[in-house]
Amino acid sequence: MGGQPMFIMSEDSQRTQGRDAQSSNIMAGKAVAEAVRTTLGPRGMDKMLVDSSGEVVITNDGATILNEMDIEHPAAQMIVEVAETQEEEVGDGTTTAGVIAGNLLGEAEDLIDQDVHATTIVEGYHEAASIAQDAIDEQVGDAAVDDEILKQVAESSMTGKGTGGLTAESLAETVVEAVRHVESDEGVARDNVTVHTQIGASSNATELVPGIVIDEEPAHEGMPSEVEDASIAVLDVELGVRTGDVDAEYAIDSIDQLNAAIDAEESEVQGYAETVAESGADVVITTDDVDDRVSTFLANEGILVFENVGSSDTKDIISATGATRVGALDDLEEADFGHADRISAENYGDDDLAFVEGGAAAETVTVFVRGGTEHVVDELERAIGDALDVVSTALESGEVVPGAGATEIAIADKIRQEAAGIEGRKQLAVTAFADALDVVPRTLAANTGQDPIDALVDLRAAHESEGRAGLITDGEDVTIGDPLESGVVDPADVKREAVESATEAATMIVRIDDVIAAE
């Protein structure tokens, strides 16, 4: 090569190798986990997130916080992905998963400083994670998951989150009722439960609507605002004068020709209106425009019409009412009609809403969330969304475990016991995994004003003697007790997913010893 240097990367590329790369990645992951740690538990604090345009989000939801943060470091992004995976799979436990991942990285950093190879750490972490899954299975409660336990799951999920003037207990009843509504022999159709927010009243006005709520107003102010026992036609039809796709001009030579053209147009419009009226439909939903003359005629006939309804709302209406979408007015038959117990149009300040309730084919239910400000309804929507997810998860799996840090205490205890039988340096990694899990009860204690070390010691002692111990928060009082007896429970799948996703992210980051970044 004649002594000439060979460049295989751009001169502007930056490369970090070895211990420096590991340290940088671990530090980034720990920093992200630390950002959400104080939000954990019933006494968790909120974060105010302000973007570049001045938009403000106030929340203590881990997934929301991490999504809103402007994170660029690739390793830190992996912790964000942990929260996203947790949210997608089970709907809650995002903060727990992120915090565990961050502490697994912290323990790995200490082991690397002790010259434990990254591969050994990864092997130990995976073995510990397998033990952890067995420990979670052992913590599953024996009682059948009935409505009372589902309410406890929902309440545990929402306690400490922004629920306005409502208590988590009262909201839990609404959440369980909503999930039960979409339960069938095939499972829980979680997607059939929607949350619709509306600013302008106390959060105490939040209610369950057995149907759907859409942002629509009647096509004519003279139409009825409410229709009982409604027969609903869903159309992909423009109820107005047909227009061609090609520009054309028509020469009119006399007043008689003009009158004939006007009469033809009126006849066409009148025909549309009469066809709809004679079909027997009480309510018409169309994805296209409705001519003013048609809407006036239909208003006089007492028919309620909503025009230019979006595709998503139209699908929801079809799902809720059992209607069949019709593409040509001549094809409209009574067999195509959907049915609802009640359809109403209501005004909320500057907003008009349509409520489609009941019906033999109803498959959708809506939690209609009210609140005095946008920040209140947004946080309430997030809290209810998480609760709906965890209740659905618990109902489908039929498995719940104690919350309040008790499951993490039990997992760490079992891992330490199993670690004694593991040979070599891998034992250090397995034990470090158990130490990382202690972050959950320690953080819960710190967030409730307790000394985290003293609380951890007391929890371990109570676990040894009683078999189950967590930090129970009741108002201002914090005690150590059995979470199952106190109604503090989580779906087992939330814990399983948190351990699995946190382990995968941490081990992936630990194995990186070379970072090549292009400018």
Automatic annotation (TrEMBL):
Signal peptide (UniProt feature, chain positions): none
Pfam families documented for this protein: Cpn60_TCP1
Keyword presence, Lipid biosynthesis: no
Protein name: Chaperonin Cpn60/TCP-1
UniProt cross-references to InterPro entries, sorted A to Z: Chaperone_TCP-1, Chaperonin_TCP-1_CS, Cpn60/GroEL/TCP-1, GroEL-like_apical_dom_sf, GROEL-like_equatorial_sf, TCP-1-like_intermed_sf, TCP-1_chaperonin, thermosome_alpha
Family affiliation: Belongs to the TCP-1 chaperonin family.
Gene Ontology molecular function: any one: ATP binding
PROSITE patterns: TCP1_1, TCP1_2, TCP1_3
Organism: Natrialba chahannaoensis JCM 10990
Keywords recorded for this protein, A-Z: ATP-binding, Chaperone, Nucleotide-binding
Region spans: Disordered: 1-25
